[in-house]
Amino acid sequence: xxxxxxxxxxxxxxxxxxxxxxxxxxxxxxxxxxxxxxxxxxxxxxxxxxxxxxxxxxxxxxxxxxxxxxxxxxxxxxxxxxxxxxxxxxxxxxxxxxxxxxxxxxxxxxxxxxxxxxxxxxxxxxxxxxxxxxxxxxxxxxxxxxxxxxxxxxxxxxxxxxxxxxxxxxxxxxxxxxxxxxxxxxxxxxxxxxxxxxxxxxxxxxxxxxxxxxxxxxxxxxxxxxxxxxxxxxxxxxxxxxxxxxxxxxxxxxxxxxxxxxxxxxxxxxxxxxxxxxxxxxxxxxxxxxxxxxxxxxxxxxxxxxxxxxxxxxxxxxxxxxxxxxxxxxxxxxxxxxxxxxxxxxxxxxxxxxxxxxxxxxxxxxxxxxxxxxxxxxxxxxxxxxxxxxxxxxxxxxxxxxxxxxxxxxxxxxxxxxxxxxxxxxxxxxxxxxxxxxxxxxxxxxxxxxxxxxxxxxxxxxxxxxxxxxxxxxxxxxxxxxxxxxxxxxxxxxxxxxxxxxxxxxxxxxxxxxxxxxxxxxxxxxxxxxxxxxxxxxxxxxxxxxxxxxxxxxxxxxxxxxxx
Length: 564
Prior knowledge:
This protein is α+β, with helices and mostly antiparallel strands. About 30% of the residues lie in helices and about 20% in strands. It contains eleven helices and 18 strands. It has a five-stranded mixed sheet. Strands 3, 4, 7, 8 and 9 form a five-stranded antiparallel sheet that branches. A four-stranded antiparallel sheet has the order 11-12-16-15, with no helix packed on it. Strand 5 (about 370-375) and strand 6 form a beta hairpin. The longest helix is centred in the middle third of the chain and has 38 residues, at about 205-240. The N and C termini lie far apart (about 80 Å). Residues about 10-15 and about 160-200 have low confidence and may be disordered.
């Protein structure tokens, strides 16, 4: 009896069940591929940042807790965005496989799942800080509709039951064939419900393969066209950058002393090449702004004469050139996120004074300058520090050329003595004077401090951790920085021995880092090397270890080596 019932259940199953699920999973992937391709194409008519992957990725970055974001920067470095995008695409592929397999038995529900994916992308795009409104939802919505239609089409050509399928709802529903007390044998399998009539009465494998191949080819063509159209914007921006000839500065950088650069193998170069300068930001796609169309608006509390400036307006102004070391607040003790470059730009304090701005110490109502970038980033800087005489710049050039795109072309802020998250806005488009009590910028909303002067730090560049130098004289060398205060002394300790004074290279300016070195007569065995710096005020770098959140890491860098 039981054997007969089991046989009846097997007889009622549509043939090719496994093939059906596998083909459904493939259909899901093709639907996702088409969704992304159509979204890419539509984003060319809106803006590249409105695509679903970038929008969802940006939303993920915005909602990532600060410690986790800090861990990603520390672990993956400049590849953190690539890892995030790869993770999003991996999840998308897995979701598409599962949704396609589900759609092989629930065709309409599967298509609805693709529409839901499009809706999520639309919400993410319109919820981004740089969103331009409903238009940003169009790429995801169009992609969702296209993907849903394709999934519905392909799953309608999957292997189903031979012959016409019934319209019943379950094993006891009506059938088109012979009937019995438990329902017709040609009816749908229990659980198939009303989805069964959507299935083709047989499976034309060649037809399915042709449809899938055509869909893949069409998706590739649409995506390629979209990337080409989006790329044309980037080409226009690149052309605008190539046309720029930076004028000579009215105030050139002080020539760097020849003995400011130590020629010790393994030490960081005094001037960081553009290609090696650290990059830490939240932009999943580097903005490419056409300088000829760029505008900067300055307005807000205490601004009596608002300004709107073009790139050419800035080029015609008096430019100054300075060597300035920048440091990221995400830099761990001994980390790589510091760099020294030759910047050229316009004094920010002069622009603010032209707008009628006064610092709080002189009765100005605004104590915060909020810089906004084209990608929606907001960075708040203290007005008092921007106008206290330091060389705070709207930078146009870096190491003798227009800013690279990755470092903020066409214009960015550079402020010596402040961590980047409170000063170094890239791809800047707006400056608004306001108060700290009235507005929290991007990073402050995520638990970072409102104000963050750079802490005194030093780093051992050579020997590297776990190096195995030969016994004898080993050169220990590195860099130290304390912007606005300067580095007065650097000391090195071997194991638990006394602190030994290192040889300091000549100081360029107090806003740049300083090379140092110490020859060490290394003896065989394991050793721990530690370094500390003393700034121009006499304050010694603290030994207390803190993490980067909320206002930068502190502690002393050390490395372990084994002398052979």
